[in-house]
């Protein structure tokens, strides 16, 4: 089972998270999501446990538990539906329409280019 863990303290390490879940059973993998530019934790991650019963027990007991002063959120991770990804792409298409506004700026750029030609 893939488990989402949120509201993590930014200082927590994957080894600490693994240890918390190993108290309930075998853990296949632990991944804390980090910002690709700063490398800083984004405050959430995922834990994979092969045994669904152990995973459910970990979810039941760790959800709301305090870790380094923060109440963490633990629940079953559901795969993101394709529709959500598409709606994100629709938002970026909306960005393309703003690119039309940028086209107005390009016309302004042409005027400036014409001015440069006059120098």
UniProtKB/TrEMBL annotation:
Q: Where is the composition biased (Basic and acidic residues)?
A: 77-87, 109-119
Superkingdom, natural source: Bacteria
Task: List all Gly residues biased stretches.
Answer: 97-108
SMART domains in alphabetical order: RRM
Q: Which residues form the RRM domain?
A: 1-79
- Keywords, in A-Z order: RNA-binding
Disordered: annotated segments: 71-119
Q: Name a Pfam family for this protein.
A: RRM_1
Q: Which GO terms describe its molecular function?
A: RNA binding
List the PANTHER family.
HETEROGENEOUS NUCLEAR RIBONUCLEOPROTEIN 87F-RELATED
- This protein is called what? RNA-binding protein
- Please give the organism: Flavobacterium pectinovorum
